[in-house]
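Q: How would the structure tokens look for this protein?
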Amino acid sequence: MEYNHRSLTNCPASSPACSAHSIMKKIVIYARYSSDRQTEQSIEGQLRVCHEYAERNDYVVVHEYIDRALSGTTDRRPAFLQMIEDSKKKEFEFVLVYQLDRFARNRYDSANYKMRLKKNGVRVLSARENISDDASGILMESVLEGMAEYYSAELSQKVKRGVRESLKKGYYTGGQVTYGYKVENKKWVIDEEHAKFVRQAFEEYSRGRENN
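A: Here is the predicted structure in token form.
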């Protein structure tokens, strides 16, 4: 699990470029991928789309916050939390994400952190989802967040169901190997070398209970 906090404004204050930056609306980009099955290319794709959006809409990107292999269902995301904290400095006006599900997949967390950003004068923007500033935009945003939370919950159920089915069929699904067993061809098999000690322990325990 990694995170990045990268500043993109290093020019002297007297330069014309920095003068232009001071006039343009300042934004930061937040990018995230949630598991080891996704790759660095996922982050690069998100950043590319966000930078293109910023250029089309005359925003200047001053920071990038990146969380790698961290789920959006939790707020234990170092770069994300740093971004929320940095919003107190009033150095940017918007947080730009590839899609709203990159910001959060939990409606409570989404509302909570958007409110904290709002108190610091910061709004969340989506590069891929066209959300207006009027009342219909509020409705659209809530629908998209609800869909993201539904997808996350459904995916979790499917993963748990898949793990249960794999275990029933004797497949190894990861984690510490139980003493007395070993893994061969991705399946649990009895390790006879150590299983005898397990049997002996159960037999002695059983005899002890009978004696009592």
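The helical segments are 16-23, 40-56, 78-86, 100-103, 107-119, 135-168, 192-211.

Residues 135-168 form the longest helix (34 residues).

Upvote if useful.
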